Description:
three-stranded antiparallel sheet, four-stranded antiparallel sheet, alpha+beta
Amino acid sequence: MSNLEKKERLYSRKEMLELTGKSILGVTMAGTIPTILAGCTKEEEKSQGLASANVVEDKDVVFTPDKEVCCTEIRYSIKDGKIANVEFDGGCNGNLQGIAKLAEGMTPEEAASKIAGIKCSTGGTQRNSSCPDQFSKALLQNI
C-alpha cells in the first residue's frame, strides 16, 4: 500500500500535520468505523480508490431532536476527535446525565454504535426513537 501509514483513530488537523507533515487523508470503511490512511497525496488516494475525507476539527454542536422525544436540545463538543461537554435539555434528567458521562471521551462513531436504535416507551406509549437514539443521529450527522 505504498507509503500509507494506517491509524485506527481520528486525528485533528494539527495532529496530522505533526505526524506526517501532510493534512490530506484517505478513508476506508471497516464496518461502521473508518480506518484513516494518514499522509495520502491526492495521487495516492486516486490510485487506491479512496475518497477524500475531512480531518476531524474541534467543534461545538447544537442539535434539535425529533419532536417525538422528550429532550428539546442536545449540545456537545468534539475535541481531538472525542466527545466532550454533553448536555441535554429536557428528557429524563438522571438517565441523560449518565449517557452524557459515559459518552464523554469516546469517538462519535463508538458512542453512536452503542446507542443507535434505542426506543423509548415513556408513559406506556412505544416511540420509534429516544433521546439516546437522537444523540446518535446528532453524532453521526456531525462527523
